[in-house]
Amino acid sequence: MADSPLDSWVGGRIQRVSQRGTNAIRLDLFHPQAPLPSRRSRWLISATPEASGIHPSSEPHQNAPNPPIFCLWLRTRILNGRVAQWAQLHPRVQEVTIDQLKDKRVQRFHLVHEDNGSDSNLLLLDEERHLLIALRNPNQSGRSLAKGKPYTQPNHWHRSRPEAREQSEAAQTHGQQAVWQQHLKRLCKQLHRRLQHLEVDQTSLSDAHRFRRWGDLLKSKLHELQPGQAEIIVLEYSENELAEVCIPLNPQESPQQNLKVLYRRAEKLERSRPHVKRRITETQSQLESLSAALEQLAGLRDDVAVAAWESRLPRWMQATRPREVNKTSSKRTKVSGPLIRISSDGLEIWVGRNARENETVTFRWAKGNDWWLHAQGVGGAHVVIRNFGGDLPTRTLEEAAQLATYFSKLRKAGRAEVDYTRRKHVRRVRGGPAGLVHFSQNRTLPVRLNSELVNCLLARTTV
Predict the structure, then answer these.
(1) What is the mean pLDDT of the chain?
(2) Which of 234, 332, 389, 426 qualifies as a cystine partner to 217, CB 3.0-4.6 A?
């Protein structure tokens, strides 16, 4: 495996572990010494017969409410560990060696992947290369291997299935193409509805002249109005003739308030006229772009063409891209959950964007020594910085404080005082709603919202 691109990740840290279905594991790696655009990478270690191997991945983590036992073992042994080396033990056996600092002592673990067709497997070994746990039954390849026994390679190797892999990749591409088609058609319907509403708004813009004319007529008759009057009839000269104009009024408001309402409605419609016209033009242009994109998508036949087509999409279309379908996840596991971002120092930052997510990040995910942040005196997000030991980096604290300000009611103000303390000093308010807490031993950080920094954080590789 000397020529493998995985060699460049030696020395990287495993930041996240999750299990995809029953036969695949997903790892997030962070390498502080790598060039900035490539410090983070996500890898899929698969033991499925059709796609067995270690592949780069862009799919998000989807954690089950109750993680499988193999995933739990990996999290307790190799999470936050450093990758020591990658090795090729056999043309179809790859090994990842991970060093983990625990109790002031470095423990070494080996993650072994076997590409053996229908008997492909993923095994975790201890420092002495004894089996700790396996993703699948290790005795299906003609060997006798049990927990605590020294690792041995399979005795029987199945033929690889390139045709099955090609069919699987083709099916995946076809599936993604169908997902994109469905998504773009849904966008078309949304834009058509928006265009209909905008056309109704454009029709109502002509009322601006009528409201202002009523206001001018009413101004000359304010002294004649009586409290509680529901309408007034005013004479108006129109084309050298007198015409009666009936002006409806709100009987619960004074004459001066009725006059202000008429002028305010006229001004609002006049201000909105250029915006409505601009949005109609933009929506029509977007509908034309969607029609062209659907025509191009219908003619694509392979994954390279789909990827190239996707990269050429406009930003507004890419921002609403559909998530890849995970057939192994249930409806419950498809919920997005709290926001997870990586700081410039490689630490995870968790952000709860509603009361339920605040409860999750503070009282389910966070540990006692993790750092907890919240905008002072207003409703907002609970933000948690995972503590891997050592001092809290200043840059990470500033980035987490920016997110706490952005996801609070002080976003428009652009300034906030952000309190931060250890998670162990945060307590629920007894009898209070979800997410309501009180805390102590906190310090305060003044924050001026930096939109460029926040956008950079939100755009980083996440869950």
Answers:
(1) 82
(2) 234
